[in-house]
Every structure is written in structure tokens, then in C-alpha cells.
Amino acid sequence: MANILSVLSIIFIIAGIISSLYAAIILKHGNLEEYIFTFWFWLATVFFGIQSISYFISFRRSVYKYPDTINSAYLPSLRNRVAILVPIFNEDINMCIDNLLAIHTNAGNYADIYVLDDSNKVDTEPIKEICQKLNLHYIHRNNRSGYKAGALNNVLRTLNVEYVAVIDIDQTPAPDFVRETVALLDSHPEAGFVQVPQVYANTDSGVLPELAQAQQFLFYEILTEGKSVTGSLFSCGTNVIYRLNALKSVNYFDETNIVEDIATSLNLIARGWHGLYYNKKLVFGRAPTTMQGYVNQQSRWMLGSLSLVPKVFKNIIFSKKYSLVERIDWFAAATWYFFGFFYIVFLIAPFLDVLGIKVLTVNSIIYFFAWLPYTIIVMFSFFYSNVSKGAPFRYLLYNMGANMLMFSLSIQSVIYAILRKKKPFTTARTGGTMPWRWFWPQFTMMFLLGFSSVYLIIHFSLYNAITAFWAVFQFILFIPVIFINRPVKQSEMDMPVFKNAN
Amino acid sequence: MAGNISTDILQRIASKSFSLDTHALKVEANYSITGMSGTEYHFDYIVFSGGEKIAIKISSDVSSINDIMLFNSHCIDSGIDKKIMIANRELNENEKRMCQAFGIIIADIKNYENDELYSGRAKFGIPELDAKLAGGLRPGYVYLISGKTGAGKTTLSSMFLSFGAKNNEKGLMVLTDTFPDQFLDNIRTMDIGFGEAYENKMIEIMEISDQIRVMKSEVSSGNTDFRKFITKIITELKRIIITKNIKRVVIDPVTLLLIPDDDYINLFLNSLAMKDVTVIITSGLRTTELSVFGMEEYYVTGIIKLDYVTTGENIDRTLRIVKMRGSIFDSTPSRFKITSAGIIMDGKNSGISSPPANSGSSDIFKNIGD
Prior knowledge:
- The complex is a heterodimer.
- By secondary structure, chain A is α/β, with parallel strands linked by helices.
- The radius of gyration of chain A is 24 Å and the shape is globular.
- In chain A, α4 links the parallel β1 and β2.
- Chain A has 19 helices and 11 strands.
- Chain A has 2 domains: 2-67 and 330-484, no CATH class; 73-295, Spore Coat Polysaccharide Biosynthesis Protein SpsA, Chain A.
- Chain B is α/β, with parallel strands linked by helices.
- Chain B contains 12 helices and 14 strands.
- Chain B has helices at residues 7-18, 65-78, 93-102, 109-113, 127-132, 153-166, 180-188, 194-199, 210-220, 226-243, 262-272, 361-369, and strands spanning 25-34, 40-49, 52-58, 82-87, 104-108, 142-146, 170-175, 203-208, 246-252, 278-283, 302-311, 314-324, 334-339, 342-345.
- In chain B, the strands form 2 sheets. Chain B has a 9-stranded mixed β-sheet with strand order 8-7-9-10-6-11-12-13-14, sandwiched between helices. Chain B has a 5-stranded mixed β-sheet with strand order 1-2-3-4-5.
- In chain B, β1 (25-34) and β2 (40-49) form a beta hairpin.
- In chain B, α2 (65-78) runs parallel beside α3 and α10 packs parallel to α11 (262-272).
- Classes of the chains: A alpha/beta, B alpha/beta.
- Chain A binds chain B through residues 98, 101-102, 104-106, 109, 133-134, 172-176, 199, 201, 280-282, 284, 492-493, 495-502, and chain B through 174-175, 180-181, 184, 204-209, 211-212, 214-215, 225, 227-228, 230-240, 242-243, 267, 270-271, 273-275.
- β11 (498-500) of chain A pairs antiparallel with β8 of chain B.
- Chain B: InterPro entries: KaiC-like_dom, KaiC_dom, P-loop_NTPase.
- Chain B: Keywords: ATP-binding, Nucleotide-binding.
- Chain B: It holds the Pfam family ATPase.
- Chain B: It comes from Acidiplasma aeolicum.
């Protein structure tokens, strides 16, 4: 089933791209605006087409090939073989203490733990104290040269172990994280690193954490499994364990880029190493619980990934060393955060229709033989791929909703990236609700979609009805905006399971 | 002087001096023997090995040839020919020569105290049981006390905690199926020092919240990965252990924290282990003779099985060490009683000779309880 759907989807994506190009060029359009919007619409079709092709290739590989790449390894002896690096930068002290305790208790039996504290705005004494008490190595730098990569490299150069794990301070490893991942590295000498999924354990606390987990699900259950098979997996900065020799071969972490994880992965790939994705829930983290935190996180990921676009094009896409699938994978990953520019044309299309600007006029042959099956098959395959991997139905809506929420931030980030404008570093664990005015693009779109659908239904025609349908559909996807920007309740993960007798 | 040296060290000294089996030795402190002359002699320690006695003298702080001569003559009159002098200090040449002449073996206590294999073991404070365990449980591992209801699991594990508390090792009692108030009321009826240790904050008592039941049902229904549950429980438990500097932990019973799945139980029990901390879990019996789910016994380092049979009005209780990885142990079953002073073990069992009638085991217990 996965095979048939993936292949069909890819065929119809290509059919959709070709037919809409045909429609855009050959079929008559009235005026310049229509040509411009139609061409824009076509570009969006190409953009999401490539993203979807990469997605379905990944899905197919994740179902048929990925399970064979993870062999059952013997659990190894771990003495003096692993170091765990925990970077900290101006974090909440109580959270740091709690999680250092957790990292120590769950991984400290098997590994030396290094706490790399670059904080310059908070009192670091309590962290120093807990490190002393738990016998963790504490390293404080007064300058932030090389940022996170600099802090990691500072210690890496002094280490003499086989493997080095990086765990962010907001992540809690399961007691068998080190053991399981080392077993895999032992049995895969060609692997430069093993990445395990980021799992948000606090999804019970509200819509926002659940939406964030839905996004993680798509990435960690489908895309990364496929990338792991293809060889285009990149490490995600935390919940990852590296072979120190691999890092040495690329002169450790790439300090020239703020997304040191992906940049270093690219360097590793260039040196012939590849990453292995181990889809086992071995580390538990917390999703952002405030809209501000979520926006900070998304914005950081967007700017980081966008800043890597030139490197990805130079190293991978323009290089003949890599297969077509690898190049599609990297292209899709590197360019994903441009999505806002393409989403917007879908969002405004119904309103343009109201204004009399017909975006993508197709004839009924194209519509019924290419465009309609394209839409249905891709939507159904997307639905099937998620559900077959165990996603609840609402995750699909959340994923589409997340794109609606973030389309404006994506546009802003692309502009920032082009202008090389820097944003101050902020973490996903801070802030509160966003001012409602921040959502003006979303509310504007909701208004336009709502108005257009009513208008188009009143002025009924088959074409208008179809457009109105999509307008209503997109309007529904915006609805989480109303629920997402509010305080969440406490997660069961943060409620004590043991309580004192008195 | 007598009473300062632990039973397991004395056993090891005796065992090494005369090539005897450590766990077949029984130690009595301040023991009196009436000699052939009719005089009553007090010995620092007498170690019983089958029908044979070994006399142990602790050297005095100042050089005393007379003490050695007296010890030797007391032994001769009492018909004891196996004699050990435990030296707290470097003996002088005369003392050494005299010991040699009388056939008294000199044992340097430092050699035994620094013996890594045996030092630092977590004792129950029940000499017979500690002896069976070659000195106690090795910290850093997880042990199972199993037995049907009423077998004495809670009493034995509570004694483990209160003995630790007396020796300045903080304990944590995690109650999963009783209310702490009820538990405290019950345990206070026994003179084992638990209540006092709790009031002095040397023992913490914790109960589990409903949260655990909620999470467990989520895992059982397949909605949550079991690692999340284990990570949550282990992290929180260990946080308590570290912040309160706890050395002994009892989870009584462990069943409510478990899910009947081998992978789960394996990971859970392995994860409970912590350097320098001794963890005891208790379990009733349902599936096998050792546990509720029939899996727990495979993933612990050691097992003590408690059992009883009722004959008429009598309850005949037995304790048996079933497994103890990385340690020698005596697997012969011992009988025991649960009294107001807690568990009192009977010396009578195969492999261990009973002490003479004038030294009741309740007396031994009194020393411990002091």
C-alpha cells in the first residue's frame, strides 16, 4: 500500500506540475496580474511538489528499507568510552538543576558528563555547586566564541573517548540511551553519528505542545527514517551521539554557522561519514509551552536552516557525488522554510477570485485527469502515511495548521536571512503569550478566506464552488490560532509521582 | 572492646585463620564458658564452627604479656585449642613470640577492614542473615525480598532501613499499597527503631500519587512509550535519593510500579541501580514462587525468599537466600520468628550449628536493638 501510494503520488505530483505549467502558459489568461499569480501558483506547486516527492520517497524508504538498517546489536560494555556534553546558555537555573540531576541519574553510570556553561546573564553558582556535588565536569567560558559549537569544541579537543553524546539541557535521557546508541555505533563502524528522536513528553498540557509534537512526528517518524536510509540524515544538535574520530576528521563542530549540527553533518557527509537514525524513544524533552517560546524556536530553526542554503547547494546539490534522491532530500530540507512565500498564494487565491483575478485557469480535462487526482491522491497519501505510522488524526490538522501559523514568520525569516539581519539568541523555554497583533497576517487571511468563501458560494458556479471549498478548508486550518496563544496547564510529566508521607 | 568488630569481619578472620567456610560460622560476643576447673571465663568473642569453638581476644592498647598468658590459660581450661588474637595496633616482638609459642594466631584487623569485597556492605543488623550474605548486601544493586502475604517482607525491609539509619545511612521507604500513617502505626509496634529513625529524619517515607496509575494505564493501552514512564519514575526517585543523600531504598511492594512485560521490568529494575545505594524491592507471589509477574526475579542481583507454613496455631517461618550475584552466600533455609523486636532468626538449620542453650538468640537481638 505504501509503495503504491508513494509511487502514485509522485507520478501525479509530476502530472500536477506539468499540467499546471501547461495551463499557465498555453491556456488563455486575461491580463498581466493573472499571468503573474498563475506563475506564482505554479512555482508554489513545484515547491510543494518537490517537498512532497522528498516526503513520499522518505515514507517509502521508512516503511520498506529503514527497518533493515537497524540491526539488533549486542549491548556493549561502556566503561570509559562515552562522554556526554550538556551545553547551557542563560537558562532557567531550576530547570538546569533538575535536568542535570536527571541526566546524571540516567546516564551518569555509563558516561562522564561535561556541563558547558556559556551563561553570561544568570548566576552560575548554583549550577557549579550541583556539578560539584554530582561530580560532573563544569566548564564555564567567558566569551561565546563559536557559540554552541565553540563550547563543544573547547572540550572535545581534550577528550579521549570513543563516543560523545550531546544532550541539550531541556532533554532527559532514558536510562538506556547511552547503552542502546553505543551498541548501534559499535555495530556500524561506518556511521559518524546516531540520532534519536526528539520526543515532547508534555503534549498533554495544551494545544501548542501537541501541535509542536505533531510537527516532530512528521519529521522523526517519516522524514528522518527515509533520510537515514538515503544517507542524507543530518544531526539535530541534541539527542545525538557522535563517533569522536568522525568529528576529529572534520576538525570538530563547524563554528562558522549557528546551526552547527546541520553544518557539521554536511562536513561529515563530505568526508564519507553518514548518520544513522535510531527511532527509539530514548530521550524526552519538553515542547515550548508558550507562544513566545514556540516562535523563538521556530524563528531560530528557520534562520539557521536558511543560512545553510548556500552551503547545501554548493556541497550537495551542485555536486555530482550525490544521487538524485540525496539531492532532492537536501534540496527539500534546505529550502523548506521558504514555504511562507508559496503558501500565501494558495491563501489569497480565493480572494483574488473574488477580485476577478482567476489564478490557474484549467480546463475540465486537466482538472479531472490531472489536478483533481493529484490533489486527492497526495492528500490521501499524506493522511495514510501519517496514520499508518501511528499518528492520531488531529496531528494531520495540526501539521497543516502549524504551516498556517508560521507562514508569516517564514516570510520574515527569509527576508532576515537575505538581509543577514541577526536576531538575538533566545530559547524555546522562555516568554509568555504573544500579543494578538502579532497574528495580524493570520487574522487577515482568515477574514479574506471567510469573506471569499461566502461571496463565492453566493455567486455560485462550479469553479466558484471548488474555490470556496478550498477557502473553507484553509479557514478551518487557521482555527488553532485562536486556541494556541494561551497559557497551558501543567503536564503530567511535571507532576510528582512520589509524595512525602506527611 | 568487644562488640566493636562486625560479625562478618570476625567470620572472615576465623575462616581465613583456620580455612573454614565463612557462612557456616556463628559469632557470639562477650561469651561466657565454664572451664574444666569450674571457673567461668569471659571471652571477647567465641566463633562456633560446627561443634568446635574458636576463641577470639582483642589486643589491649598497651603491651600486655599477662593478657596473652591469661587468654591462653582460659582457652586451655575451656578446652579450646583454636585461638585468635586480633591486633588493633602493631604488636611488639615479645607479644608476637608469646602468641607463636602458645599457638595463638595474630590477625591484623586492618587487613580485613580494607578488604574491598566485604567492607561497606549493607547489613540488615540481623547477624545470622548478614552472615549468610557474607556480610550483607553489596550497595549499588537491586535486591528482591519475595514472599506471600504475611511472610515478613515489610518487617525485614523496614529493619534493613532502621539498621541503616542507626549506622548513619539514610533510608527511603516507598510505600505503594499502604497509607503511610497505617504503615507507621504498624511498624511502631515493633521495637526496631523505625519510628525513631523516621522522626529523626533518617528515614523518609513516600507514597505514590495517582499520577502513576494514570501513566501506567496510558502505557498499558499503548498510548505512551514505556520508556517515558520509566524515565519519569526513575528520574524522580533518584532525584530524591541524591538530594536527600539516601543510601538505602525499599520499594514495598514494587508490583504497582511494574507492567508485566520483560523489556519493561528489565529496564526498570536495571535503572533502579545506583552507585553506593542499596535498593530492595519486595514482591508478593502470584505467577511463580518468587514474584507476581514471574519476571522480577530475573532482573535483580539477589533474592531473599520468605515463607511460612501454618501447623495448628503455630506459624513456621523460613528465610532462604535464593540468589546473590557476585557474592558467596549460604542458601540453606533458616527458621525465623517475627516478634516485638522484629525478625529473630533461629540458628538451627543445616550447615549452621546452634549456639549453646545459655545463649538465646533473643539476646543477640537485644544487642542489635540497643
